[in-house]
Hints:
The protein is an alpha+beta fold. It has a single domain, classed as CATH 3.30.1330.40. It has 3 helices and 7 strands; from the N terminus they run αββββαβαββ. The strands form 2 sheets. The chain has a 5-stranded mixed beta sheet with strand order 1-2-7-5-6, covered by helices on one side. Strands 3-4 form a two-stranded antiparallel sheet. α2 runs parallel beside α3.
Amino acid sequence: MSSKTPEERIAELGLRLPPAAAAVGNYEPWVITGNTVITSGNLPWQDGRLVYTGKLGREISDEDAYRSCQLSCLNAIAQIREAVGELSKIKRIVRMEGILGVADDYKGDHPKALNGSSDLLIKVFGDRGRHTRMIYTNPVMPLDCTSLVILWAEI
């Protein structure tokens, strides 16, 4: 991987790192404990609006679910950047947890949807972006969002 910063790689992908979202409840958007930063759940926000809503397998296609996970992950990366100042301080993305809003009868490919997040992490952080992950599905999501992503990163 080149010597470019994660921020430069984000720009090369044609993406823009958004401002970190404020908490919408009584919690912290991120915390640092020891050498780990953990984000709260991040939704697919862009320019102040929720871009992807609805259930995977009903209103949302597998392709849109991939893009929703990518956008949720981009917002989680913005939280990490707010926590540490610059993304080059990240030694490794340790874990990514993704929650997908799915229709009750959805029998599609959940892991491929969550690859929207995993692929982005590897493109942005290179080998330091390789991570463990957990996928959850939920019939009811906050604000009817399609995806929610949580990151754990070593600093």
